[in-house]
Amino acid sequence: MDILFLLFIKHAWIDLGLQPTSYPQGKGKFNYFGLYGHLQHYIPHGLGTVLVLSFFTDLRTALICGLIDWFLHWHIDYAKTRTRAKFGWVRMDRMFWILNTVDQCLHFATYYLIVSFLLP
Questions:
Q1: In angstroms, rounded to a whole number, what is the distance separating the alpha carbons of residues 40 and 81?
Q2: Taking Cα atoms as reference points, which of 71, 24, 25, 69 lies closest to residue 50?
């Protein structure tokens, strides 16, 4: 369970602690490949996962899991951004927060699956 806890801490730090100040202008645009803003968000998630897992498993496995986290985080956030834009939901809308809750649950499910893979 230490792995899961550390992955949650990593997620909170990157998703919340770094998000407000670390992105260039235009991050909110939902280009699929994301250019700089989105890549600056997804890559740190993958690297953070590699860092956490490197204390618990071999480097190859940590890298594979980091790639999985990077890929899934990218697609989860992309779907969230597209959905929010399609419906025009903003911070004052209840559905904005429900969508963000679903987004976070999917990220936590990603970590649960990674840990389940590591600890059969």
A1: 16
A2: 69
- The pLDDT tens digits for 29-43 are 555 555 565 677 888
Cα separation, 80 vs 67, in Å, equals 20
* Nearest-angstrom CA–CA distance, 59 and 103: 28
- This prediction has a pTM of 0.86
Q: Where on the phi/psi map is residue 57: left (φ > 0), alpha (ψ -120 to 50), or beta?
A: beta
Total domains in the chain come to: 1
CA distance 105 to 43: 20
Domain holding 49, by residue range, is 2-118
